[in-house]
Amino acid sequence: MSAVGSRERPRRGDARLRRAALLAAVGELLAERGPGFSLAEAAGLAGVSTATAYRNFADPGSAIDAFFAELVGDLLEAFDRLPGGGDPLADVRAVCREWVEQASRWGAAAVHIRSPRGVLARRGEEDPFVGGLYERLARLVEAAIASGAVPRQDVRFAVLMWVTIFDERVVVDLTRTLEWSADEAAEHLTGALLRVLGRS
To answer: Locate the HTH tetR-type domain: which residues (predicted)?
Structure first.
């Protein structure tokens, strides 16, 4: 390996670590007080220079966009990593548990960057996050219907109710205000979802 190649890897690794620290700081600032912060504040919290922050992001808005894109990507990838089985309700429960586990970490930040448009409208507008989320949830609802685990129903409504029940504000209320564990919150929210889907 050349000396240049050996130097490049640590630099790239350091750059990734600095970006990760900046995004963590953005999440922390969003959770504390919403989007009214500067890149200099994010840099200070992350322990990097303001120049480094501006090398990564043009402004606070682009840093917030990157934070949201990362948490969305992590959530959808986590859903995809869950082992699917022959029991569609077990698959639903696994997705619900993962959702609560993740949202309990970033929900307080995400509430400040919510879109005013509805889920179904955004799916129709080809929002990549909503489209990806809808596709995964709809597939699970359809499998539950096909297996007879839940009655036939409008899948669009079922997915809309799923997203509503698992709204990050609800997760934050349960895990932070009521101080429930992620397991306890997931169990109650999953029970509510299954009742909405018609599972007695």
So the answer is: 16-75
